[in-house]
Here is the input.
Amino acid sequence: MISNSIDSCLVTSAAELLTTSQRVVVFTHMAPDGDAMGSSLAVYHWLMQARNWEPESGHVAVVVPNAFPSFLSWLPDSDRILVYESQSEKARQWIAEADLHVCLDFNEPKRIGPAGEQLLQNPCPKLLIDHHLNPSDFATVTISQPQASSTCELVYRLLWQMGCVRDNIPLNVATSLYTGLMTDTGNFSYNSNNPDIYEMIASLMRAGIDKDAIYDAVFNQYTEDRVRLVGYGLYRKMQLVPEYHLAIITLSIEELQRFHYQQGDTEGLVNMPLQMSDIYYSVFLREQEPKPGTPKPVVKLSFRSQGDRPVNIFAHEVFGGGGHMNAAGGEFVGTLYQALQRLMNNYPKYLKKD
Ligand code: 5GP
Ligand code: MN
Here is the structure.
């Protein structure tokens, strides 16, 4: 039996929004990951089935800020997703005309890029479902549980408390939810000690998901370039700071291009140094092309840690980012070298020695 962790007033308000709106846009964060994509497509499929909407009926769209990685493109109906960066006109029209915005897996409009400004311009009700710390106060109904493993867990909980999922979960909803539960917990290797998660999985399996096939589709379909890039990052580019149990990997644009980098190719790399017995912190810095209109490159930083060693405060205070205690990220405008300098100057203040 799954516990009712969402306040019942919030469930009632969310249900009201989801069952009465006629034109819904589902949003998720920049560089969408398995949880972002899974939760968005789960809500999309659930709405279509619960409301008897046809795919082309113009009732619901998923908008992502930029392209999603190819290892998620097998997700049911991912080809119907609107990518704001490349389909901005169509996406803008949907956002402006919507009578409900459902915001999944992000805690502030800034996290969805330029679409965030437009989201705020439309005064329609907004339903936020998320597991990041400190959501900003922009939604009509905010379901925020930082202790949850994933946004997919929270979507499951909401549907459960609405009485909508028992043993009758549509297969495409179940597949989407499992994908986020699996990816946001590293295939249930961290942040996954809540027994409810396994009750959810059991019910998703009864709904017909093939969990082994989902694992295979996400984790075993890499290109040779990707596998070699990861190898290069670990063998040639990883530095260790033993005193602080810290590993640092940097990859420049030139190095990424050498391996024909595609979105998502370095996913998971930052977790790998934690496989070493005395490494508890890992930081990965990836140089990106300058944003349009600025000459400076942008460096994307990913932070990971184990146990009671928060990295989100470091990511927030030094790199303007955020995230969870053991998985956070941020950005730096400038060169890779400058970003690394900033990291090196600051880690003693934020990381524990023992
Ligand atoms: P990743 O390292 O996988 O990109 O992100 C890890 C976690 O940190 C995710 O939960 C993500 O939401 C958060 N995160 C990553 N980059 C940023 C950022 O630039 N700003 C904020 N606020 N959170 C981020
Ligand atoms: Mn998530």
